[in-house]
Design goal:
five-stranded mixed β-barrel; 34% helix; 19 strands; 456 residues; 23% strand
Length: 456
């Protein structure tokens, strides 16, 4: 390990998978002497880990690079600053970034960030630039290993990457590549290592995580790859892991085995995120979602039959090209039928290179805004009602850190709600039973009743 201590600042945009990727970047750079910095000022290496999903993603990156430029210039006589752009914007626009932003030394795609040490060395040796946006998913996970730095009692772990669905509004198939799943033994080794470091809850990540089809573990009698349901049951056997979650799923990849896992695996939390995007079959077809509203509702019905206390979360897009008032009302009706515990909602925005961007009948911006406000009012009403329904219930809460007030702890319910409770500091890392006495749209509050289990 290098004796020279260097400072690393990573700014993460977008999804939970990017959060995971940023943590792994820290892991691969730690042996080189890089320690985390809270701000870019004074950092020796700044990485922008970008997301291409949100509107004007590339412009936000260039804006941030503009702010970093004077910081880099100020360090020119003090050893310098290396600036890297990683993630999906890097994958989609790598060559353009290098051309348009001379302040950038390194561009690395989401499948090649494990090469950061050698790419940084290359830029330093040549005093030039490096670009690597190849798709080498398998090689990435083979080289990352399981020596992760852990800060807390929850952790993300990528089990699947890529997407074969090609929704017409989405850039993910072009930035993350085809669907690929990690071998089960590799995932188990990483989860066991996390448990040994005190992690109590793991969230399995994938662009289409329920499309998981990983190589069966050594010695397994299974004929062919394992599905996500089998993986969840297997991980539930690992000592120390008390909670399992997964996100994000696609309706087309729901199968009976995964649904049954909610019924027969208590460690699988009763909170399920299943994006639908629209309630109109016409719009779903235009989006190339490959399912109907009726099929989506049937999945929700099967989930609730398997686990009656399950809470459903989702994603919605309003104003997709061709969406009429009738189509939007179909979306509102689906929301009423599902009754979401929480839901993300967005206005449709064009993504360069996607089929949706070239479609006719683009919806006017003011219409999209009006529809989004109406949808969010309904979703907020549902979320408040769900949270208030927990008042009087006793829920197991995993305490993660101190709260904002003296003597208060912050934790998460099985439904992923933030919970604030007065409790002793030694409850951090433990699961305690909390009687819920208050609720708002974003959090619950209550009284600690009993300590259910120790983190040891």
């Amino acid at each position: 390990m290098s004796d020279a201590r260097k400072r690393l600042f990573i700014k993460t945009y977008g999804c939970q998978m990017n959060v995971y990727d940023s943590e792994r970047m820290k892991d691969v750079l730690h042996p080189l002497g890089y320690e985390p910095a809270e701000e870019p000022d004074g950092a020796d290496l700044v990485i922008l880990n970008t997301c291409h999903i949100r509107e004007k993603a590339a412009e936000k990156v260039y804006s941030e690079l503009g702010r970093l430029r004077p910081l880099k210039e100020a360090k020119a006589d003090e050893g310098g600053m290396t600036i890297a752009v990683a993630g999906c914007v890097a994958q989609a626009e790598g060559a353009e970034i290098m051309k348009r932003a001379p302040v950038v030394d390194l561009v690395v795609g989401p499948q090649t960030y494990h090469k950061l040490p050698e790419l940084i060395a290359k830029t330093h040796r040549a005093r030039g630039e490096a670009l690597d946006t190849e798709f080498e998913v398998e090689d990435k996970f083979d080289r990352l290993g399981n020596d992760r730095q852990v800060d807390g009692y929850t952790a993300f772990i990528t089990v699947q990457e890529g997407c074969d669905k090609f929704c017409t509004f989405c850039v993910v198939p072009y930035t993350r590549g085809a669907e690929w799943s990690r071998p089960v033994d590799q995932i188990v080794a990483e989860v066991r290592a996390l448990a040994a470091k005190g992690v109590r809850e793991v969230t399995l990540l994938g662009q289409n995580v329920n499309a998981f089809h990983g190589e069966a573990p050594a010695g397994s009698e299974a004929d062919g790859p394992w599905g996500l349901g089998q993986l969840v049951r297997h991980l539930a056997l690992i000592g120390g892991i008390e909670r399992i979650r997964f996100t994000t799923s696609h309706p087309r990849d729901m199968d009976d085995d995964l649904i049954n896992a909610f019924a027969d695996t208590p460690k699988l939390m009763p909170y399920f995120h299943l994006p639908v995007q629209a309630g109109s079959d016409k719009i779903l077809k235009a989006m190339n979602r490959q399912h109907t509203a009726e099929e989506y509702l049937a999945i929700i019905e099967r989930l609730r039959a398997a686990r009656p206390d399950i809470a459903i979360s989702g994603d919605m897009i309003v104003g997709f090209p061709g969406e009429t008032d009738k189509d939007f009302e179909a979306t509102m009706q689906l929301v009423r039928d599902v009754n979401y515990a929480s839901c993300f909602s967005f206005k449709y925005s064009k993504r360069p290179g996607t089929p949706g961007a070239a479609m006719f009948n683009q919806v006017a911006e003011e219409v999209k805004t009006e529809r989004l406000l109406a949808l969010q009012a309904l979703l907020n009403e549902q979320q408040v009602a769900f949270n208030e329904s927990q008042i009087g219930q006793t829920l197991p809460v995993l305490f993660e850190r101190p709260g904002r007030l003296d003597g208060q702890l912050h934790g998460r319910s099985p439904y992923l709600q933030a919970v604030h409770v007065e409790a002793p500091a030694d409850m951090i890392g433990k699961i305690g039973n909390v009687r819920i006495e208050g609720a708002s749209r974003n959090a619950l509050s209550g009284i600690l009743v009993t300590s259910e289990q120790s983190a040891a």
